[in-house]
Amino acid sequence: MSKIIDAVSIVITCGAEIFFIQRHYHLKAFPGYCAFPGGKVEAGDDSLFIQHPLTMGIDPKLFGAIIREGHEELGINLGLETLNGNVENIDYLGLAVTPDFNPFRFATHFYRFNLKKKCDFIVDRNEAFLAKWMSASELLNLYANGLILAVPPVIKIIEDLGRDPYIKTIPNLNFSYDKDNHVPYIESLRSIRQLMPLSNTLPPATRTNAFLIGDDGPKIIVDPSPKDSEEYRKFKNTIALFGLDKILLSHHHPDHHESSNVLARELNVPMMMSRDTHGRLSKKYPCYFDGIKIEFVKEGDVVTKWLGRNVVVYEVPGHDEGQVALASEDMSWFIAGDLFQGVGTVVIGDDEGNMTKYFQTLSKVISLKPKVIFPSHGIGLGGTLILENTLAHRKVREQEVLAFHKAGKTEDEMLNAIYAEVDKKIWPYARKTIQKHLEKLKAEGLIA
């Protein structure tokens, strides 16, 4: 069980307007997300508590964290604003605890400070690249058009404040779902439903995302791969909430297709994939696609619609020769599959892996500049910094492999030197990646 860390989120309002920020892309937690200022509670925060009729009953450490975070992120002191009479009311809107399937968990306390007049904020641009006042209806319109990324509690707060700007408390901020009959799913970007069944994937990941898209065209599920019959039952129940027309496989690895053929037969829907993926699965499992209609996809194909925009196929080899990705035509989002990992690291190995193509694919997607990228394992992220960092890391690793090779080191010696602090259960996959670096270096004439 992950440790739960206390945090605060400051919902600042003035009349019907809300002050919101868009988190900077370089932040580790929720980069690019629309959010409210705030952060985790730190030791000594209680010393910043103030005595005032509006603060009665508020946990001193939580109020102190609000004061500190407000000063650090916004350049204001909400304690002084309270003492000076500019705060109409302080409301404890509610508590949201990060779901237990997330490796990093927070108990976030949402406090609303309703101001009589707007403050002059000095926003920390290392925390937020966008900060402004907007009405709840304007924010909801941005979300409805797929223009902002936000966690479920933030969306619910905006919705409820839109209905009643003076609401005192907002119930049910916690993420919840019927654990006995459904798999968890979120919609951090409008009409991109991210289902998260447990799967037989590589640790530390335990789930493979299955994306349900197509609100203005065929409903397509990407990579359904529940780990067993019980998880399959829950997964199928969850899909039934929305309907399904087609299944798309991003590539042939087991944690992206297990039970997908069973689902296709039971629901009588076609399966979509690249010819390479079809060939690899057919060779490994000769009867896998019996009785299923197959639709092959390639670069540039339009497979459905999302909020009125075309959803386009991109070929993204490297991790797997036949891997394909989906993106909106305006690059509002890009479902990147296993090009990067939100949890763990990408393996490049076996005959389907090619380090040269992996480098090229990362560069290609970076150049497309999608606003949001979704991995197969982990949550969606704003911007392409994670891809840039992944490519930079691979280049550093390649230089290490090159130096070790020139020094006459064996693969075993490289493995021990480079991955000394990595769980040895992962070493077989790390070895494959080293081998692919060596193949690339040899193909480029840098080693014999």
Beta-strand segment tally: 20
What kind of sheet is the major sheet? 7 strands, mixed
* Low-pLDDT runs: none
CATH A-level architecture of the largest domain: 4-Layer Sandwich
Based on Cα principal axes, name the global outline: globular
The Rg value, from CA coordinates, equals: 24 Å
Instruction: Please identify which CATH superfamily of the largest domain we are dealing with.
Output: Ribonuclease Z/Hydroxyacylglutathione hydrolase-like
The first-level CATH class of the largest domain is given as: Alpha Beta
Which structural class do you get from the secondary structure elements? alpha+beta
CATH domain fold name of the largest domain: Metallo-beta-lactamase, Chain A
Strand share of the residues? 15-25%
Number of helices: 11
Average pLDDT, rounded to a whole number, is: 95
Structural domains: how many: 3
What portion of residues is helical? Answer: 25-40%
Query: What is the distance, rounded to the nearest whole angstrom, between the alpha carbons of the first and last residues?
Result: 49 Å
